[in-house]
Amino acid sequence: MDTNASAFRSLLGGLLQLLQKVFLPHFVAALGMWLLTLFVILRYILSPLSAYPNLKMAIGVGSAVGLGFLIFVYAFVTAGVCAVRIGSASWEDFLEAQFDRVREVLGQKVADMDESLSKDQARLLVSGSVRDVFSPLKRTGQHSFIGWLGALVLGLMTLATRSVLLSKMLKVSGRTVQLSKLFAGRATLVGAIVLNLHFFAVLLLALLYLVGLAVLLADFLMVFWLQ
């Protein structure tokens, strides 16, 4: 097995342990949201169908199943992002290795890393190299539970790595940039990638929590409005 894929699988193993610790509270909260939303649907939204009990039951069962699936996905994704937020602080070694691989892949695409390139060309090369490094790892556990979790992690890692490199590129004065200088300060850049990964996880987690709060608020407003 490729050592990089093996390292990523080991990282996911640790992440799964974190997920086991944070999933239950997220699932319980999501279950409460499911029960309240289902109550609103059955008690208020479907009340005009009381004269048609069979139809009301069919729609109610369909709503329960559909909402149940959505709620489980919501709980899983939210708990997964929460686990990433916690675990990202310990992934510096892995991200450092990926940073080196990005530089290596980029070096294979250009004749000379010291050559001055237009920022538009450099941006395309950097983005493509980041994608070339992280995309093969998506095959780890593909079409399985761990594969879905891996896709979430890789998406955030790709975003964090690309944003750090492109941000440094924007700070370079002029219309051209040398790729060798772009990758200078390896320790600082890797540290920035770790911080960005944590920031994006926190931001995504906050957005997911806001979605849950919005659903709960809508349920409560519906109850008071239709009473």
**What is Rg?**
23 Å
Number of helices: 7
Helix/strand-derived class?
Answer: mainly alpha
Number of domains: 1
What is the approximate shape?
elongated
Sequence of secondary-structure elements: HHHEHHEHH
On the 0-100 scale, what is the average pLDDT?
A: 88
Q: Report the helical percentage.
A: over 70%
> Which spans have pLDDT < 50 for at least 5 consecutive residues?
none
Distance between the termini: 61 Å
* Biggest sheet: strand arrangement: 1-2
Q: Could you describe the 3D structure shown?
A:
The chain is an all-alpha fold. It has one domain. It is 81% helix and 3% strand. The chain has seven helices and two strands, in the order H-H-H-E-H-H-E-H-H. Strands 1-2 form a two-stranded antiparallel ribbon. Helix 3 packs across helix 7 and helix 5 crosses helix 7. It is elongated.
